[in-house]
């Protein structure tokens, strides 16, 4: 592997650890826990892993020299810092006992089932310290949820004499980690399962998990780009930039980027849903801001849009639900493209038809024609940034005819997703992930299963961070998935009464009118601590800083 | 202006200057020069500014305390470092004589004509040290080429007692700077004009100008993003990423990004033109690489595409030329969209019709229907990255039917332009621009006009850089522009026998087959010198390093 100068220099970075994890460790157990909802059902589904205490690590005088082999799995989309969870885990199990071995399962949970693995030795580990990506062992989206998968996995676990599996993933993957932990515990197999909280979207977050890893680096990378675009926007003074960022179900990324860069407009899906806004409401909101800025002579601006916003508009949600039903009708399958659209229009309710007709032709056509392998409308194919700018342009045209607007409107479009998912982790993510991996090793050494590794107090210097573990069942409730009630970890959406949103909401009118852009620049690994070592604004505000 | 932590810390950076510019300066003059082509014509057009010597600055014992006011103009698209040219110029004229004043003309050359200006005082200057963007005074695209503009400009020059105008711009703007210098010299107005070489595309480059500013920072920013995408690509192992980068007429950016990131494929427009490749040749080339990687089990990859590639394909160039003619026919104006396409098809030569029919429907439709205000085909609207991936998918489908390919192909698309034009300048661009501004001040103080400020030996440490000026006429020849022969600075395209291209060409077959990605990471301002202070690969290779 040919390396860049940054990678080579960065390999030498020694992530900072919480004080409690720097030497020998003992466990302090708290009170018994219960799930956030549906306690009875969750308890019944997880008799062996329900109700366990939260644990915290404390410095100890005597080292625990547990002999143990560990398996590690990366699950789902990439997030910066994944490799550091693995290096933290590796360093800690070797420190516990140099004979301990770490096995990586290849390309995600499927690697466990298919017995596709590699031993992660020191020379491999050293190649990946403080790097982005999941390419050390690859990731995958196979769901571990069936008994035959668990049993197949057990074969290789036995063969490699593995004591515990660590699964790095989002809400679904951690739920499955807990199902697996429960299964192995129920069977008395003596195999532990530990989860690690990863998601760029930032929606795996609760009282115990302050932030999920990768969010910090990804948001800073997107904010670098948004800031660069804002500066261009403010220099050329002739375009409105519509910038879509990752975040299908939660708008944490959009909100964090807005707090870092102060754009003219940022949409927040959760607010749109809560207020029951229509597509026209959103378009009007943007068009009015364009109009107001034009009146000040500013025919330019920036708009941040969360990827999933369209599905949060109640009227569009209803339309999509009915489209799925209409397109599933047997008669619909025989029609050519032209007939299909007529068929759809003939079967929509008046309300949905009105929404359908309000969409630009290309988007309506796409909704009526393109379906995914399950026959569903492909909402993710809609280029929301272009949809919105097109509709804003139409609205402004109308306002111009009415004499309400006399500016110029020209739009540019951007979408940032892949640009940040594999960025080299910021100091925060490098430290945080390394501490999570170290915690995972200690949870294993202390015999825990069905726990997620956690690190708290993360706006303080790393030295003062608090490491430990939380029972995964504690974060669960029952939700409907594909028609069935399932135990799941509750997704953390943007809270409209939380400090990050309120801070944004208190300033957005000024940002819309003025040009209050902030240009964060690229992530720095060396240099002043106020540049290199700050947590996200979201995290700081949530912790009252 | 609210500032980011990086901006605040970065404001304190003191750009490094060449030794000769650190104290008092004297001028060393070389031999008389001549233009790179059409000497007689250029000499006739520029009797007062032709044939002047190249000058180099040397340390002097006695300071030149010239009393002078200076005007500065930013022309054309943004490039990182523009503000540092201005701060370098400001610091140097104040050092020469604290009474000297600097005036910035607002929103480009139009500011001179319209008398729209602001005085740049120390407090304003300090806000913009080492920052990206052109927002200090804004930029514009008004061309200074008419006598009444020159005379109008003179009024405000006299009013502000300005001795010289500095114009920061690309090839066209510097040509116009020289026309202005010649005019003021011919009229004996005693007003000097100095140019500064700026272009992100990197096509303002020759024996005297080693690199134009902004190229370094922009390429590093794009390479950061391309590296992040490559790492994602190599972690998820399921997409081909088609990444378009800036560069309408030259592929320097694409080539530099390829040298930094080692993608599977990089197209170089100049090579495509030289080899007379067809669109099908390019598609086949990419499809074959996809096929070969699929045979190794690698259904993923990255392709870098220069923005202007489509216009370098000889067959497409011919088609566009004929389309422009056909669409200009009076009968064409009366037709509706449907008739228009039939009309176009009926009037194309067989050869052009075949090319037209080979294009995906949407692209063909766009070429036949969408015209710019001059009635020309809008090539820039074509999303080349999507055009190519669509055609590659079709080609692979055909290969699959013929049993030659059995992989999976799924594409993602990106376009990077605005993301890098206003990035905070790298140490290289911060130093280089500051030195250019300092040189410009010294050229003025030494009575020069019609010169471009230059800095050479730029792969050595800044201390050893050589600063001076070159007569703009030296870089000119006569070229046809809009039907007329005009004096212009010759654009520097990628040289196929130059070291950067040859280095790329020698490795690209391996890069196509293997996964040899390099992940450069974000620009660093603090940290090890091998990370923070390297010039571009293009510059290093051109200088044999």
The largest chain-to-chain contact, stated as pair and per-chain residue counts, equals: A-B, 59 and 58 residues
Number of self-contained structural domains of chain A: 2
Shape of chain A: globular
> What is the alpha-carbon Rg of chain A in Å?
25 Å
Q: CATH-wise, what's the superfamily of the largest domain in chain A? A: Phosphofructokinase domain
Major sheet details of chain A: 9 strands, mixed
End-to-end C-alpha gap of chain A: 42 Å
Strand content of chain A: 15-25%
Structural class of chain A: alpha/beta
**What's the architecture of the largest domain in chain A, going by CATH?**
3-Layer(aba) Sandwich
Spatial sequence of strands, sheet with the most strands of chain A: 1-2-13-12-7-6-3-4-5
CATH topology of the largest domain in chain A: Rossmann fold
Subcellular location (chains A, B): Cytoplasm
Keywords (chains A, B): Cytoplasm, Glycolysis, Kinase, Magnesium, Metal-binding, Transferase
Binding site for substrate (chains A, B): 199-201, 238-239, 246-248, 307, 418-421
InterPro entries (chains A, B): ATP_PFK, PfpB_PPi_PFK, Phosphofructokinase_dom, PKF_sf
In brief:
The structure is a homodimer of 545-residue chains. By secondary structure, the first copy, chain A, is α/β, with parallel strands linked by helices.
Explain how this protein is built.
Two copies of one chain form a homodimer. Chain A is an alpha/beta fold and 545 residues long. The first copy, chain A, has two domains: 17-200 and 426-481, Rossmann fold (3-Layer(aba) Sandwich), CATH 3.40.50.450; 220-417 and 497-542, Phosphofructokinase domain (Rossmann fold), CATH 3.40.50. Helices cover 43% and strands 16% of the residues of chain A. Chain A contains 21 helices and 15 strands. The first copy, chain A, has helices spanning 5-10, 39-45, 82-96, 110-113, 122-127, 147-159, 171-186, 215-236, 252-261, 269-275, 279-295, 314-328, 337-347, 350-358, 361-369, 384-401, 418-421, 427-445, 499-513, 529-532, 537-542; strands at residues 25-32, 53-59, 69-74, 102-105, 117-119, 162-169, 192-197, 240-245, 265-266, 301-306, 411-416, 451-456, 466-471, 476-481, 484-489. The first copy, chain A, has a nine-stranded mixed beta sheet with strand order 1-2-13-12-7-6-3-4-5, with helices on both faces. In chain A, strand 6, helix 7 (171-186) and strand 7 form a beta-alpha-beta unit. In chain A, helix 8 (215-236) packs across helix 9 and helix 9 packs across helix 19 (499-513). The model of chain A has no long low-confidence stretch (mean pLDDT 94). Chains A and B meet through helix 1, helix 8 and helix 17 of A and helix 1, helix 8 and helix 17 of B.
